[in-house]
């Protein structure tokens, strides 16, 4: 918990693996490396709900008729939301 306080993560929606912490809140998705707590990626996303399953992130927006689907690795490289 102390690490989460240090990175000031808003936990509107969150997913955590051994390597990454993904938080999506207030129109922004942030991804941290869980070993160093370095912020790897910060990108604006339009979302209503974020789901996570087996390394894949699903972002659904109530105002747009689609679900964005991408891996955490894609998101770290800055490709979040470019695949639907």
Provide structural commentary:
- The strands form two sheets. This protein has a four-stranded antiparallel β-sheet with strand order 1-2-3-4.
- Helix content is 13%, strand content 44%.
- It is built from two helices and seven strands; from the N terminus they run αβββββββα.
- The chain is globular and about 35 Å long.
- Strand 1 and strand 2 form a beta hairpin.
- The CA-CA distance between the termini, in Å, is 33 Å
The main sheet orders its strands as 1-2-3-4
Task: Tell me the number of strands.
Answer: 7
Mean pLDDT: 76
Name the helix and strand elements from N-terminus to C-terminus, one letter apiece. Answer: HEEEEEEEH
Question: What fraction of the residues are assigned to beta strands by DSSP?
Answer: 35-45%
* Bulk shape: globular
- Which structural class fits the helix and strand makeup? mainly beta
Low-confidence spans: none
**Major sheet characteristics:** 4 strands, antiparallel
Which bin fits the share of residues in helices? 10-25%
- What radius of gyration results from the CA coordinates? 12 Å
Helical stretch count? 2
